Amino acid sequence: MPTFLTLSRRLFHPPARGLVILLVGVLLVAAASAVQAQEQAKRLRIGVTLHPYYSYVANIVGDRAEVVPLIPVGFNPHAYEPQAEDIRRVGTLDVVVVNGIGHDDFADRMIAASDRPDLPIIEANAAVPLLGATGAATRGVGDDGKVVNPHTFLSITASIAQVNTIAKELGRLDPDHAQAYRDNARKYGRTLRKLRADALGRLAQAPADDLRVATIHGAYDYLLREFGLEVTAVVEPAHGIEPSPSQLKATMDQLSSLDVKVIFSELDFPSAYVDTIRRETGVRLYPLTHISHGEYTADKYEKEMARNLDTVVRAIQEAGA
Amino acid sequence: MTVQRISPASAGHETWITVLFCAFVIAVAGAYISWRHVPEQHALAAADTIDARHDLTPAEQGIYADLRVALPEILAFAAEEEGAGLPSIGQLRDELVLSPFTDDAAAARRGAHRWHAVRDGERAGYVGLSEDVSVAGALLMLLPLEQGGHDHAQAAHAPDSGEQAEVWVNRAEKAVLPGTLGREALASAGWRRVAMQFQASVTRERRQP
User: Do the Cβ atoms of B202 and A147 come within 8 Å?
Assistant: First the structure.
């Protein structure tokens, strides 16, 4: 019977040594592939409803999970009706991150109709102090704060709060990566915070006390509040609906009586009547993006918010701050 | 000659039956509405609390939102700089660049608060005294109990602690802090705790809590 020593000598004999190394190499590659396949199989598939949430989640998870938009590129989330193909895709998800306060009500219908009606939901806004909706959004239900403004994603502060909430909840679902999600969330929060600090740093002084602003769509209250500005009036009768001539006249009279100096219009929904307002009232117009169009990318939110912040800074500077 | 008296066509009985049926429907509907009635969610239980959405001024709402997201950063900083304690106002402003502690255009427009670190032996936090209480009152953020004392190592799970932010507001011209930072002492000194509630949109069919 060969002893351990003689066995070792035989194995490490030159012709056998190559075979052993080859065998070990094959085993290692196979083990690595198995681990990788297991990792792939364990990767969460996270559904998102709106472009900003794609960016939030993509920055939190990196390549540790897959981010899947519920609605395809090119659809307006304000008017989206669930399609059969999209509902089928919902059945393949592990969790859905929702705005949940009025901007993606279609998500509940999609989940209920999917193969997984019990799909977990992450309420991104659970820790965000919400503002009551204003203007057309409150029609029929009163202006008592029951209907909230769902555009929290157009604010840096509210976005950081949502990123933290999403990271915490994803960590509960995927404890192996919880620390990575938390670290990434913090890093992304710093990036967003810097955008706001840079924008405010470009303002030599605070906006003038008499700077009154209006918006075409009631989406920018959270964003403008970060500059200490309040929205005095919202112009459009309903989202994407152009005012009638009499409504337009009433709006222009209202803007004049309220001494509105700046209107933030919609970059994504350009309308001819906005030019009429500018021409007739002399109010300055600045377009902001709602971040709801185009491809879903990880850096979309940063880029478009940087542009929005630049626009607000320019509006304040040109108004004489 | 036979005279037959024929009374005019009338729907007296039918009218009464219809009226009674309508009353019955209204009564049933009313009873059902009363049974399903959910009391106003923002009716706060405690007298020393104030609702963030309905009762804060716009500037206070902005500062409150900033304080809530500043807390996890403050706690994480304290955990990383073990032994250094909580960050000073200078560090919050210059190193962490955390609103609302920064001196910028937004801060100036929101009441130009002057921030100070506070501690009473039990609890610690930051208080911002307003230059213009008509815009925003004084705001006090107290750290969660385990971080407010001396055990900053507990702050390792900081980013999870957002919901523990405790913010108080006082709109008196010269707001003062009591000797201790307990709930009763603060309430007696005119401070009111800010409460935030989350309800999923009323527009959703399948509402989450």
Answer: yes
